[in-house]
Design a protein that fits this description.
The protein is mostly helical. Helices cover about 65% and strands about 0% of the residues. It contains 4 helices and no strands. The radius of gyration is 25 Å and the shape is flat. The termini are far apart.
Length: about 120
Amino acid sequence: MPTAAMLDDIPKGAWIALMVLGFIVFWPIGLAILFYMFWSGKMHGWRNGRSHACGNSGFRRHRSSGNSAFDSYRDETLKRLEDEQKEFHAFVERLRRAKDQQEFDQFMNERRANGGGATAS
C-alpha cells in the first residue's frame, strides 16, 4: 500500500492527536503535521462536520463519467435526494415550530391559571 494511501486512511481525530503530540515533543514536528493537514485538504470543511466533498446543498456535482446514461441517472438521483433533503429540513422546522408553540401555549395557560397578570417592564 502506498504511503499516500495509508496517510489518507488516518481519521481526523488521529491527525489532531498526532499534531498535538508533535507540538509537545518537538514543535517543528507539530508544525509540519499542521502544514501537511492544510496542504492535503484535511483541514478543509471540518466546520459543522461536513466533508470537503459536500457543497452547500449537501451533495456534490460530478464531472461527466463518459457514460451519458449513467450521468443522467446520477443527476436525476442527486436532484431527487436534494429535493428530499429540502423537504425533510422543512418538515423538521415545522415540527420545531409546533413544539415551540405548544410549549408557549402551555406556559401561557399555566400563567393564566396562576393569576399571573402583572408583567415587569
